[in-house]
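Support request, priority: normal
Reporter: lab tech (M.K.)
Component: structure prediction queue

Hi team, I submitted a job for glucose-6-phosphate 1-epimerase from Galdieria yellowstonensis yesterday, and the status page still shows it as pending. I've pasted the exact input below so you can check whether something in the sequence is tripping the parser. The sequence length should be 281 residues. Please let me know if I need to resubmit or if it's stuck on your end.
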Amino acid sequence: TSSKVGNLEQLTLHHVASNQQVQVFLFGATVTSWKKNQVERFFLSQEADFSGKKPIRGGIPLCFPQFGPYGSLAQHGFARNSMWHLKQIGTTKDGSATGVVLSLSSKDVDAAWTSAWPYAFTAQYQLLLGFQGLQTNFWVRNEGEESFSFTFAFHNYFDVSDVSSCQVFGLENIPYYDRRKNDEWNERGEENLAGFQIMEPVDRIYVSTPDELAIFDSSKLQIIKVKKQHLPDSTLWNPFGIEGSDAGWSKFLCLEPGAINQPIELKSGEEWHGSQMLQCE
Ligand code: TA6
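Reply from support: The job had stalled in the queue. We restarted it manually and it finished. Here are the results:
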């Protein structure tokens, strides 16, 4: 089904057999809600803007073709600021999965962006709800003559009861860039224990992380698993109330699989695919 929020069109998908629902906006291809057993699993900011003039804060903003400030574009690139097209929507005959495919090409992107990143590409974004959980698939293809490179992330905002009741698994002993300390390189990873807790502002880019990560919320008694493919790195972010924090900062934790440290290079005609499977128990 389709509905309007502010100026923007939102699609809702249901997978009845597994009791899941997902909502996505064409603007930014931003997923804003994922419910399993009627329980919301993503954080959406109360300050979220639905005018189509700013990225929607919450759910899964897409960072493409640039993660963060590292490049010629404004923070996190244009995918989350562009109007995507609906390409396909439906449920498999046997009811095992429900999905949607959205697409974006360089022709859809505002000239203010493409002048700083002048490459011909097509991107497709597929959301699949099935018995295993919510899978998100991103493809990009170089449609031009010239090679280009890009960085990417699924900027997941998970809904948590309180960030300090969460434990993160999979990032122990992994080196990271500390964005709070001018990208200082922390070679050993400060956290040597599995299941470390967040008790201060964190903004880190962990490099070469395991393909399975998890957040355990001890108040909600919820485990979110993030299983990623072709996305070597992972950002962990919570502003923990510092100046400029979202009013709801204690209610989210961002764990963002990405290809950040080593840009992906695509020659003419080449395609790249990155994906994640999100599961909650
Ligand atoms: O992924 C973490 C991060 O890059 C943080 O540094 C923080 O700025 C956040 O993303 C949100 O960025 P935004 O541009 O949406 O305000």
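The chain has one domain: 2-280. The two ends are 27 Å apart (CA to CA). Let us know if anything else looks off. Ticket resolved.
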